[in-house]
């Protein structure tokens, strides 16, 4: 059941790639030309076919916290960031 959700997210990501102008506009921070950490986190998670629950269990937080990291409303600690980088190969 969880895999269906991940595949749906993957399909959404693939559809976004078809529209490069919209994707670029959406993922770039207003202050920089690089994608945000949250976007990289979400993209890496989807490419690894992991759910927010899977990532949350790996770093010891709840899925809502991972979602907040992805949308930029929360910032992970340095140790969580290092763990996320290792898990998702960012």
Outline the fold blueprint.
Layout (H helix, E strand, L loop, with lengths): L1 H16 L2 H8 L9 H11 L4 H8 L3 H9 L6 H11 L2
Helix pairs in contact: 3-5, 4-5
Considering the chains and any ligands shown, give keywords for the structure:
90 residues, mainly alpha, 434 Repressor (Amino-terminal Domain), globular
Description:
The protein is mainly alpha-helical and 90 residues long. It has a single domain (2-88), classed as lambda repressor-like DNA-binding domains (434 Repressor (Amino-terminal Domain)). It contains 6 helices and no strands. Helix 3 crosses helix 5 (63-71) and helix 4 (52-59) packs across helix 5. The longest helix is centred in the first third of the chain and has 16 residues, at 2-17. The chain is globular and about 30 Å long. It starts with a helix and ends with a helix.
């Amino acid at each position: 059941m969880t895999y269906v959700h991940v595949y749906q997210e993957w399909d959404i990501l693939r559809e976004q790639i078809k529209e490069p102008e919209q994707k670029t506009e959406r993922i770039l921070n207003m202050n920089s030309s690089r994608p945000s950490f949250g976007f990289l986190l979400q993209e890496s998670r989807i490419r690894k076919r992991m759910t927010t629950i899977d990532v949350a269990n790996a770093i010891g937080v709840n899925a809502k916290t991972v979602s907040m990291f992805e949308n930029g409303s929360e910032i992970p600690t340095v140790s969580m960031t290092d763990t996320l980088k290792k898990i998702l190969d960012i």
